[in-house]
Model the fold of this input.
Amino acid sequence: MKARIFVPAALLTLLALVPCAALGQYTVVLGGLNSPRGLTFGPGNRLYVAQAGSGATNGKITEISNPSASTPAVRDVVTGLFSAVHTEGEAVGVDGVSALGNGNIFAVMALSNEALGFPSSLGHLLQVSQAGQIRSVADVGDFDFEWSKAHLNLASHDFPDANPYAVFALPDKIYIADAASNTLNLIRPDGSDEILAYFPNNALADATPTCIAQGPDGALYVGTLALVDSIVFGPSAKVYRVDPNAADPSRLLTVLNIATLWADNLGPINGCAFGPDGTFYASEFFTAPAFANGDVVKIPFDRPDQHISLTGGKLLFPAGVAVGADGTVFVSNGSAELPEGQGQVVRLTAK
Done:
């Protein structure tokens, strides 16, 4: 599955020796996490982080109340989510998370049951209540796997494939970015699924969309990993703009062309969000050779060619990004293949 990110074993040994103090002036809000990925704010200044886990069905969604406080309150909203470890060492489980103002949480599980050949919650969009009750809304993974089978010509080197990775929820609709079928999906409350956009291949490999954020203009902005191209050519990740009002899922030509380039020349993007002032933030999985120097960059909405580093490349495999009402930026750190319990949620800017 191309959307999973594997890091050389020798590098893991080195990274295991990097202490939390390596983050310098940045504050670790919560440590001891297992493969933290998606990050989102809910009502009441509550921050939610999806932990893909470390195998043994220990995926979870964790709530951090008042994350800028010196000792924020922490609780697990739901535990026991499916989690497995690939032979290369990466956790597979819950990746994306998004919360509504009524407290409902939506989370998306990785991969596809059809692709793997056994039944599970993998590939499903889940609705999670504040009491930890779980309801499957849609089997996005299998839907995308079937779509990719029907469109093999779009990525003959990788299709069929599916790996739902990011979720962005609104009261009347939910959007999913699939990092393997390279699609943006629209999910209705009744669980119906449609493909709104397909993200074009890069020079060497496919786009691999990993995050969704809604801009001040109401359009959706989708960041891509572009892993292979970034390794070979340098920063190759892109941010695409998709206007949902112009979508026509029934017309393939529209699906293939609705995404327009907004920003490029970024390190592999693994998470994104807009701040209250309209600034776009993206996590870069790495910015230097050998999968090193993860970062978060901010991009002014009216200057998408301007990329401003927030950390100087001091993060380790960052993923989800969330911005508080006061503009404080949070990022999940240590999202892939670190030793168990080494993941963190980090506060990058303090008010």
User: Anything to note?
Assistant: The chain has one domain: 33-347.
